[in-house]
């Protein structure tokens, strides 16, 4: 496995490989969720490149950029064992310059849900991915459904900016109790870890109500009371049921062929997100 740190090294690697290239962008501190993306890419492409880059532009001024877990040695060992072809782990100066002028800004989608609470976050994600897509020229790029708004935004960007890349969605990988795996779970104390299950449990609870409730406002009200009664230490940021294509809130489950519940909450000051496709009428 080659470890590349500069754009030039990446360019040289890219010019040597032929056939489809799968690309898995990450911020490192790898867990089984990331590895599921890598495994799928390895199954579908002769070459798989993983980027490990904690992107400063997607963190707000009060967010955890400096504290974000970094564990390059362990990440490289995991990827090497899986049989990855190459890792691109550049220093920040290789990607951004103080003279940079270009900013990508999304309109509607970057203001919805997580974007409403993390101003500028999705613009930062779009910018780094546009740069990486140009550098890597992947055939396919793999994204987890765990960050559902992100994967929709990437699909939009690739479509609107004509990147010749197939975006592949990979289902959320969970711990045995249902908690969505996340690098940020490592911030939680054992007590916080026990509360963190609230997000998944609330989504599941909403699903169990569907045979008798199709009105979204009612489902959300029930979901919120379930969360506050069972998990008093969890601060809900938002709970929504949206059409999974537009990400707009719906009023009735029959209004969308693909309704999805989205949730974000703070546990011990740690921001966690989750989502679940809702099954109606089966
Ligand atoms: P991150 O390192 O958090 O930027 O995540 C890198 C990629 O891994 C993104 O496409 C995430 O959606 C994906 N990912 C993170 N956690 C999970 C998970 N639990 N299941 C599936 N994909 C995930």
Give the arrangement of secondary structure elements.
Layout: E1 2-4, H1 7-16, E2 21-26, H2 32-44, E3 47-52, H3 72-82, E4 86-88, H4 92-95, H5 108-111, H6 113-117, H7 121-136, E5 140-144, H8 148-160, E6 166-170, H9 190-196, H10 198-209, H11 216-230, E7 234-243, E8 259-267, E9 270-277
Helix pairs in contact: 7-8, 10-11
Tell me what you see in this structure.
The protein is α/β, with parallel strands linked by helices. It has two domains: 169 residues, Rossmann fold; 94 residues, Pantoate-beta-alanine ligase, C-terminal domain (Pantoate--beta-alanine Ligase, Chain: A,domain 2, 2-Layer Sandwich). The chain has eleven helices and nine strands. The strands form two sheets. A six-stranded parallel beta sheet has the order 1-4-3-2-5-6, with helices on both faces. Strands 7-8-9 form a three-stranded antiparallel beta sheet. The longest helix has 16 residues. The structure holds adenosine monophosphate (AMP).
Number of continuous helical runs: 11
Distance between the termini: 46 Å
- How do the strands of the widest beta sheet line up side by side? 1-4-3-2-5-6
Structural class: alpha/beta
> Which overall shape is indicated by the principal axes computed on the Cα atoms?
globular
**Overall mean pLDDT:** 97
Going by CATH, the architecture of the largest domain would be 3-Layer(aba) Sandwich
Give the name of the CATH superfamily of the largest domain. Answer: HUPs
Percentage of helical residues? 25-40%
Query: What small molecules accompany the polymer chains?
Result: adenosine monophosphate
State the CATH class of the largest domain.
Alpha Beta
